[in-house]
Amino acid sequence: MSFGYVLALADDALIAAQRLAEWTSRAPELEEDVALANIALDTLGQARLLLTYAGELEGAGRDEDDLAYLRDEREFRNCQLVELPNGDFAVTIVKLLCFATYQHELYSALRDSTDERLAAIATKAATETAYHVDHARLWTLRLGDGTDEAHRRMTDALGRIWPYTNDLFNGDWIDPALLADGTAVDPATLREPWMSTVDKVLTEATLSAPDDDWAPTGGRHGEHTEAMGYLLAEMQYLHRAHPGASW
Fold first, then answer.
1. What is the spatial distance between Cα 23 and Cα 135, in angstroms, rounded to a whole number?
2. Nearest-5° angle of CA 102, CA 23, CA 8?
3. Sequence-separated (6 or more) residues with CB below 8 Å from residue 182
């Protein structure tokens, strides 16, 4: 198993959880405040399991906290999609629909990984992400087929988020040996089932996927958007300000 592969999956989940947690006390209704917080906790749980495993694979004595809080921006391997600012609620829902659907397809496939530890993590995560996809689907339908203003905002959100989904299916960062031995999943194989699910939701919500005119990339190689540095500054501040502190 590769430290880098597990770390990338962990970073996706960690940064996605951080963004979702920013909605706590700010969601449009109390029930949604609780729902997004629970989705963030699910995703953080996935990140913790993966970061712990990544630390063990690295063999350098770093635990989940070290990997989460003591790395600099260029050392993170998450896709750029998850680090994008929340924007308005429509942006968050579109991002959740796209990313949760990708995660669900990925984890479902990784349940058959030849790495037993990764397969066990994926089995748990696949169940959780099925709920995340359904939650995002219901909101997409409610907003896309809602008022003119809600429809407009969802259309704008799709235009902002969609280009970043292309990189989810780029596997140039994965060691070919991991694909050959059945440890990892080729993300290119996930595009068709992902698109089938997302397109069905969008169609039902009277929305449509925008035309692809550009496809930003680089997150897997440590190249991030401007938003990433600000996100890490907030997420890592307390740990770095009080090194070694404990409750």
1. 15
2. 35
3. 112, 113, 114
Q: How far apart are alpha carbons 50 and 11 in whole angstroms? A: 9
Q: Is residue 193 within 8 Å of residue 109, measured between CB atoms?
A: no
Domains of the chain: 3-241 (1.20.1260.10)
pTM above 0.90, yes or no: yes
Q: In whole numbers, what is the pLDDT of the chain averaged over residues?
A: 95
- Over residues 101-118, the pLDDT tens digits come to 999 999 999 999 999 999
Q: Do the Cβ atoms of 212 and 166 come closer than 8 Å? A: yes
Contacts of 63 (CB under 8 A, 6+ apart): 51, 52, 55
Least confident of 75-79, 225-229, 238-242: 238-242
User: What's the CA gap between 218 and 177, in Å, rounded?
Assistant: 22
Using DSSP, state whether 199 is helix, strand or coil.
Answer: helix
Helix axes 226-241, 3-21, angle to 10 degrees: 90
Confidence label for 176 from pLDDT (cuts 50, 70 and 90): very high
Look at the block and give the residue holding tokens 């579109």.
94
Residues 225 and 98: their CA atoms lie apart, in Å, by 18
Q: Which amino acid is at 181?
A: D
End-to-end CA gap in the chain: 34
